[in-house]
Amino acid sequence: MTVLAMVLAVLDACGYAAGARLQHQALHQPPRGAAVGPRKSVFRRPRWLAGLVLMASGAGLHVTALRLAPVTVVQPLGVSGVVVSVLWGLRARRARLGAATGIALLAVVLGTGAFATLAARITVATSVSATAQLRAGLLVLAMVAGCTGLAGVSRGRRRCLAAAIGAGSSYGCMSVLIRAAGEEFTTSGVSPVLCGTLAALALTVLAGFWLVQKAQASGPPEVTVGCLTLVDPFVAVAIGIGLLGEAPGLTPVTGLAGLACWAIAFAGVLQITRSTPFPHLRAPSPPQERAVTDGPLTRPRHDVRRTLDRFDDLCLQTAGRPASAPDPAPETESRDRKRKRAR
């Protein structure tokens, strides 16, 4: 069952990466011949809806994987979505896979695979208590609130990173709530406790979805998916080990080995994030006067030219020349001086 859960987790990551790419394209590449309307019109575009369907399908696979394996096994495999997102981004930009990006992708795959293997050997599925749910919810709520506030006062790259980190924190807690809801329904059926867990799960999903949309509107999907796949497993593993006790046989050597594998994957994702261009996040250039082409030379707009003409007239009047008289060319003045000397 653990192998099947790992396969479903990889498919979930690929579906989420593809959905994020489609929604990003729908948000930043409006159809030709159509004016850019309000943000609400994006939600009705077929490409954005197709991305939503892929994300929803991936969420279903994610829920199934969580029912078959512990959180610490399912969540780290989400980093495989970075590979799909990066390769798709390179194809969209018509760029080649460089050596640095290839090594980064290899580090992501090897680091994540080794981490998942270690987690599968030392972790066991445990029940999620109401106390653990409350503590995890309060912890994630503080993280989401802080990231939302930071994204609200930031712009550009910082806003994208803050929103993606908040979404990753929300999705990390969502895995725990999904398992808790499944266990409560199996043991007690429909109960007030189950309704409370489902309400918390709905709020978590909405908060994560909203922050993901903010991150996609502020940066490329490679960076959004990369941040999600780093923060989401980190939060889920921290909750699983710290609050749920899913690693009773964890030794210092195994813990250090897992951290080393995760550091390798983190370095790969960080390199991918640095090498991803932010074309629509560049600071806008200061407004300049448009130049009107007139043959091989360019002349400024009429308002700038009129100002320069007035300045030239003022200088001519100060020098004792009429304002309407044009300045003699340098070559003409030099010829007149030569003729006077010859006479």
Multimeric organization: single chain
Separation of termini? Answer: 110 Å
Strand content: under 5%
Order of helices and strands: HHHHHHHHHHEEHH
Strand order of the largest sheet: 1-2
> What spatial form do the alpha-carbon principal axes imply?
elongated
Strand element count: 2
Average pLDDT metric: 75
Radius of gyration in whole Å, from Cα? 30 Å
* Secondary-structure class: mainly alpha
Identify low-pLDDT runs: 34-38, 281-302, 323-328
Helical stretch tally: 12
Helix content: over 70%
Reported for the largest beta sheet, the result is: 2 strands, antiparallel
Give a nutshell description of this structure:
Mean pLDDT is 75; it is low at 34-38, 281-302 and 323-328. With 343 residues, the chain is mostly helical.
Notes on the structure:
α1 runs antiparallel to α2 and α5 packs antiparallel against α10. This protein has 12 helices and 2 strands; from the N terminus they run ααααααααααββαα. About 10% of the residues have low confidence. Strands 1-2 form a two-stranded antiparallel sheet. The chain is mainly α and 343 residues long.
